[in-house]
């Protein structure tokens, strides 16, 4: 590493789970090797959704809207028509008391989290250093490296409920989770990437009350949740309050390449996000907004989420669980109860090799997964469980997913036999 690089830059270029994931995605797109890609976060290409987006793009070309947005900057808060459509939908469907001043666009969820994490952690204006607390881990791989302060995140182990049929579920350990004087912000994802966990209504109610009493913002990462893309397999109404920061995205609807994030929050926080946008990117991209504004304004986005997106992933999840049962026969395995998102979280208790070694063996056989230890940001105590888990995606073609699961079963059996 160049010794002239700044310490700030070192946080981004030293490598990590997010870089591993995106490098693997790049290898898949390069096409040099025919991988079974169970590792990345790309959503499925659902034909019905692609048809809708092509139709909307055609309409934008025909009306001249594409020429307008491609040749002009929007304001740093984002496309006004899009923001208004999101505001109206959230008011109409959930009764949220919000205005345009409560919504901003960003260049995707990762950009949202970079801004928000660094708003509330590190050395603060009052001279105190503050931290981000994760009530539940494992959590999203992308949280690990985006806070400028290297140790800004803190997490605790979850409770683990063993269920029937090789299933288990993580829950927040409220007895072990407490907000401290130096807590700057709390963050949860719902549904959770990597596990597909959905915090239930009581867990969310307790987190909202806990953070409200402490005067601490609560970030809810809703990249897979309700109202869109709605990849939730049980009842999980969105939660909002004056101190809640609600983050959404267009990626998992099928538009990951357009990098469109949405943040709903207190007006002062939205103003800060707009300032970050102006400095970092001048303005956010508008193509995602133009393709979806009418879908959101009309409520059609809700029908698509309910009748197209959710059933697609529900069927894929059920198939992946069945393939695990078939191809893991004789293997001691558990998988997190799939309640949403696009992943299965596999746990092999007592795995005699590390998840990293399993990843390397699988990659040598053209199967991509993500080793589990990358999904425990902020956990500062050793836990063997972290090295016994992997994340797989079931969003890709079914034949790829089944072949990958079969090879995982073979490699795990080989690991236990070699021990």
Uncertain stretches: none
- CATH homologous superfamily descriptor of the largest domain: Type I PLP-dependent aspartate aminotransferase-like (Major domain)
> How would you describe the shape?
globular
Q: Give me the Rg, rounded.
A: 21 Å
How would you sum up the major sheet?
8 strands, mixed
Distance between the termini: 38 Å
Quote the CATH topology of the largest domain.
Aspartate Aminotransferase, domain 2
Structure description:
It is a single chain. With 419 residues, the protein is of the alpha/beta class. The protein has two domains: 10-49 and 303-418, Aspartate Aminotransferase, domain 1 (Alpha-Beta Complex), CATH 3.90.1150.10; 74-298, Aspartate Aminotransferase, domain 2, CATH 3.40.640.10. Helices cover 42% and strands 15% of the residues. The protein is built from 13 helices and 16 strands. It has helices spanning 7-13, 17-30, 47-63, 65-70, 80-94, 109-120, 201-214, 251-254, 267-280, 287-298, 300-327, 355-364, 398-418, and strands at 36-37, 103-106, 122-123, 129-134, 153-155, 159-162, 167-171, 183-189, 218-221, 244-249, 261-264, 334-336, 343-347, 367-368, 370-371, 389-393. Strands 2, 3, 4, 5, 8, 9, 10 and 11 form an eight-stranded mixed beta sheet that branches. A six-stranded mixed beta sheet has the order 6-7-12-13-16-15. The mean pLDDT is 93.
